[in-house]
Amino acid sequence: MTVLRSLASAFLMYSRIPMPRVEWKEENRRYALCFFPLIGAVIGGLLLLWQQFCGLLDIGVIVNAAVCVLLPILVTGGIHIDGFCDTTDALASCADRQKKLAVMSDPHIGSFAVIGLCSMLLLQFALFCEVRNYYVTAVGYVLSRALSGLAAVTFRSAKSEGALQNFVKPAHKNITVTALVILIIICAAGMLPLGLWAGIAVCIAAAVCVVIYRAAAYKNFGGITGDTEGWFLQITETAILAAVFFAGKLTEVPM
Description:
Elements: H1 2-14, H2 32-57, H3 61-76, H4 79-92, H5 97-105, H6 111-130, H7 134-154, H8 165-168, H9 173-194, H10 196-221, H11 226-252
């Protein structure tokens, strides 16, 4: 039952998918991060279903791309975008570490967050207008969350309290790390038959995002927080989408 309650806790926190309510205690969140990537599987599945629907009704590329951008927001309720905006404001403040953490905790949104969010969504929309390998893209939603969960339990935390710590502290670290590493390997291996060059490009892009994330979080905040996790997830999903796009374009170039 602890496993099922951990599953429900993960979906209740990181999605808007209806789940049975569970008591908010550490025991019920012990394996929650193991199930975090399943939310990405839901997003990826909906993306593929949407493509089938578009094919049946001959829906144009603009409407198609717009819904593709909105799907993760509808499923998650925008929780990761909130972290992206807070972190963007903090990084743009050019202040010292403590001030940046304070900026990140401010519930108000700043101009740099608006600029960053609009730029990211516009870029995602443009890429979705061109991307054709939706299977690799769908797996990317699982991969990004597996990497995010792995970072949560292995990277240094900037704060001893907060939303992230509600899931990190009670987590069974060895089981969580093992489960997420296995899932990352499955995602990487599974993408290759779906598109060899796209899969390779996605793995490289995701690895680069992890390196950049760790360096940026440690330098600017002294570690990671729940907000930086959202920032990382959004950056990684955009990078994965760009990798699929460029891999597709490169394979179309005559040799």
